[in-house]
Amino acid sequence: MKVLHIANFAYNTHGASFYNCDRKLSAGWVRNGHFVYEFSSRDMARMGTVFRSKHWGGGWMNQEILRICAQVEPDLVLLGHAQLVKPETLAEIRRLYPNTAIALWYVDALFHYHKTGYMKTWALYLDVIFATTGGELLRDLVPGPTVRAYFPNPVEASVESLRNFEQRDFVREFIFCGSVGGDPEREQYLRGLQQALDGIATCFYGMPGVPTVNGVAYYRALAEARMGLNYSRLNDVCLYSSDRVAQLTGNGLLTLSPRIPGFDLLFREHELAYFATTEELIEKVRYYAAHPEEAATVARAGWQRAHEVCAAERVAKFMEETIFGKPYSSDYEWRNEVYR
Length: 340
Fold this sequence. Notes:
The protein contains twelve helices and twelve strands. Strands 2-1-3-4-5-6-12 form a seven-stranded mixed β-sheet, sandwiched between helices. The chain has a five-stranded parallel β-sheet with strand order 8-7-9-10-11, with helices on both faces. It has two domains: 182 residues, 3-Layer(aba) Sandwich (Rossmann fold), CATH 3.40.50; 146 residues, Rossmann fold, CATH 3.40.50. InterPro entries: YkvP/CgeB_Glyco_trans-like. This is Glycosyl transferase family 1.
């Protein structure tokens, strides 16, 4: 199968986001024996004008997609966070290549409604929308016959390549990698947690005064830590987590996570250190810092689960079978989160 994968491959960041979902999904399709032609929509839009503006170059970029379709004739056009693509371009692909499937994947939270409005316009041309949010937000995402399906944040063995559970000595016991993004409540929560863990070697990357880490610096930070915090903007939304959970579990850190509704479908009690309250989180961090062998046992179990259940090739196979209406070849843990 030939796949035209239109996403934000972020060439302009010089590789700082090499662990993002777009390349991991491409790898999954390739591992399954398919040809993938990657198209970085925002970068190509910048190339379309001497001013290097993704907005001013959007028209040229959309025409380039059609030129590529004419040369490749893809069996599938797979879109990921490619909002600069015009619905008219999707309509033209539908007209010229009626046997080509079109699907969208989305890894930001669906509760950010101001970001998802374009999907309602696109839905007329989409066979499937895949999202890392489940439940009612997914079910009610768009009107009409477009299939809505959950998918987990993918783990790619060539990217999530650390095995921290095999280490015994760490620079830090616990890290948080993210940002507060002008959210005072989030900042207050993380500051309180940092103070409560006084006496334990920690680092909260992305807090005011502490720079965020990207690229290889991010992986160095992961490699230096026994435990990592998976903490999204909202943690009470069905099956939703940022892709941080894949980066932490996939690299073998003991991952502490709120009890996200439905998340035990993906990770069971012995594979993540779940917590319901801040007090329970603090207690577990202190306990596992004092019991490194138990920490390694949970981290190894989480790592193994992530690389089995959320492997990029398994996620890509699920996508393929959902898009083309094939029988599922695996008992995907999230198979009940497909709305037709």
